[in-house]
Amino acid sequence: MTERLTSLVGLAPTAKLPGYDRNLLKAGILHLGPGAFFRAHFAPFTDAALAAAGGDWGIEVASLRTADVADHLNQQNGLYTMLVRDTSGTKAEIIGPILRAHVATRIPGDLLQRLEDPAIRIVSLTVTEKAYGFDAASGGLDLNHPDVAADLANPHAPRGVIGYLVEGLSRRRAKGITPFTPLSCDNLPSNGAVLKRLVVDFAECIDPSLRQWIEQNVPFPSTMVDRITPASTEATYRDAETLTGRTDLAAIETEPFTQWVIEDHFVNGRPQWEKAGALMVEDVSAYEKMKLRMLNGAHSLLAYLGYIGGYEFVRDVMDDAGLAGLARRQMNAAAATLDPVPGIDLDAYADELIARFANKAIAHRTYQIAMDGTQKLPQRLLEPATEALANGSRAETYAIAVAAWMRYALGVDRNGQRYELRDPRAGEIAALLADVPRNGGAVSAALFALPGLFLAALTSNVAWTEDVANKLEILIQDNKLPLI
Ligand code: CS2
């Protein structure tokens, strides 16, 4: 083992260093959820903006649950290696804007103190879909979400993301401090608008005047974020060490492509992310829909079919010409539901997605993408399917994707091995399926009845639900992939 990465001195020449003086940075952003995606997207965009435009926008990060990443970052003075992989090789960049990491559960009040510090002007989030407490059926706050329920009972000592944002904003209002801009970077449609709805719903429950103040004073810009980022593995740490000459337990790996579209509504300043290639726009919804439906919808399709078909990585699924063709059909079907997206040729976008999925240098597990299906299906597949059916399409690729998710939800692979269904509703799904015969009709009927997941417009379409049942039957009986 080499020396730990703790400074920029003496690194191997193969490591690209930050293009600015880290000593000039001050905490201006507090980021909740320092997982691999944040370290491959938000932090490098900020790093590149600092290099291109200067400024002092440093980032503090906070983990609401697990301590590992935060501890590794603190041990490394916030530094870590980003590996960018494609078939021509792997490049290493040291990413510099992180100043400090917090673990919310460790020191009571620590994170609230950071949220009320006037120096913090943006609070950004990558906490995954399930952390929001979004109730797809009502479009508002899910009062039964464990964090939401706990935080409503105890709003001054929150544990969940919505509770933290509301208490932080409340303290700033009480002290007359300009609010921060909450910035969602999760794969939800209109993520800023959704976050606003949840925050004001929560505020309304505890103090209607706070709700009003938030509505009048706090912007919630939506963003579209994109960069394929597999979970780090031993190979990530090994290659980071080879290319930097240092041991780095916070290293991540990602693809060359990166994209960020941001609504330019900030109340308290922002880094010049446009100098790093981000697109600042008035309204992000067309981009967001395009990405969620074309990229993420096809990703989920490939993940479920791929996983149950015995493929470990997306790149392996893409080696199967039938499945790669199906992914492209799914992208075309998704594109047909979209309005024109400014400056983007959807056909070329789809071609690029196919190439990104096939990148041989990226080992992205189908099991990783398959996680949290109940949180991902609506915006990726179910809403566009509903629109496609309303426009007279058979929505067949959507039926395949849903059948594949249902087959996956059985939790047993083609060799009879059980696997864990990593989904916040896994317990409910297992209970629903416990006594159901393993055939397409019965399993699909049981899962269509999962409260709040499938819209009535879908479940009332008999031809489509039968199509799902038939495809699921093929998947259950033969483990064959219905590609018609
Ligand atoms: C993936 C996304 O895990 C998943 O569900 O579809 O993480 C995907 O890789 C990113 O959204 C790409 O930007």
Description:
The protein has 20 helices and 14 strands. The chain folds into 2 domains: 15-281, Rossmann fold (3-Layer(aba) Sandwich), CATH 3.40.50.720; 285-478, N-(1-d-carboxylethyl)-l-norvaline Dehydrogenase, domain 2, CATH 1.10.1040.10. Helix 6 crosses helix 7, helix 10 packs antiparallel against helix 12 and helix 18 packs across helix 20 (462-478). The longest helix is centred in the middle third of the chain and has 24 residues, at 285-308. The protein is of the alpha/beta class and 484 residues long. The mean pLDDT is 96. It has helices spanning 36-40, 42-53, 68-75, 110-115, 146-153, 161-175, 191-206, 208-217, 234-244, 285-308, 314-317, 321-335, 346-358, 366-370, 373-390, 396-409, 426-433, 440-448, 456-459, 462-478, and strands at residues 15-16, 26-32, 57-63, 80-86, 89-95, 98-103, 122-125, 134-135, 140-141, 181-184, 223-226, 252-254, 259-263, 279-281. The termini are far apart. Strands 6-3-2-7-10 form a 5-stranded parallel sheet. It has a 4-stranded mixed sheet with strand order 1-5-4-12. A 3-stranded mixed sheet has the order 11-13-14, covered by helices on one side. A hairpin with a 4-residue loop joins strand 8 (134-135) and strand 9 (140-141). The site of D-mannonic acid has 10 residues, from helix 10 and helix 14.
Key words describing this protein structure:
484 residues, N-(1-d-carboxylethyl)-l-norvaline Dehydrogenase, domain 2, five-stranded parallel beta sheet, four-stranded mixed beta sheet, 20 helices, binds D-mannonic acid
